[in-house]
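Section 5.1 Outputs to date
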Amino acid sequence: MAMLLETPPADRHSLNEDIQGILVGTLFMALSVQFLQAGQLITGQIAGLSLLVSYWGGWTFGAVFFVLNLPFYLVAFLRMGLRFTIKTFAAVGTMTLWTFVLPQVMGFSTLHPLAGAVLAGITAGAGLLALFRHGATLGGVGIVALWLQDAKGIKAGWVQLSFDACVFLLAIMMFEPMTVFYSLIGAAVTNIMIITNHRRDRYIAR
C-alpha cells in the first residue's frame, strides 16, 4: 500500500493516478461502444473492425476486441517499451470488462442514430484523451502506424486513415448508406476532440 501512495517524479503520474485515468478512460470508451451498438453504428480503428465482426458473427464486442488486439502487443513492446505495453494491455483488458458489465446495468429504449453517433464520438474522444494523458492506448493500428512512421517514413496519419477507409468500405457493404453516414459523423467528432485537445507540449504521457 505504501507503494501506491509513493510520490512520483514531477514529470510522471503516480500509480494511483494512472489507475484512475485508465479506469475512467476505458469506461468512457465502453460507453461509446454502447451508443454505437444501440444505433447499430460503427467507427474506425480496431474498435470499428471489432464492431463489424461482432455484428457479422454474433459474437460479443468485448471478446472480439480483445482477441484482435493480441498481435499488436509485440509491436507495442518493441516500439514503445514495457511500461507502455503493460498500460495498453491493462486498458484493453479493462475496456473489455466494461463492455460486458455496462449492458447488464443500462440500456436505451430510444436513441436516434445521429444522437448515438455524436454521443459516441464525444465519449470516445474523452476516453482516448484520458488514456493518452496516462501513457496508454487501446492498442491496434495506432501502434503499427507509429512503428511504420519511424521505421519506413510512412506518416502515421495516412496509415490510420487507410485502415479506417477499409473499415468503412466494409461497412458500406453491410449497412444502409445513412448508417455509414451517421457513423462517419461520430468518427469525425472523436477526431476533432483529439485534434483540439491533445497537445504533446501540454500533456506528455509518462
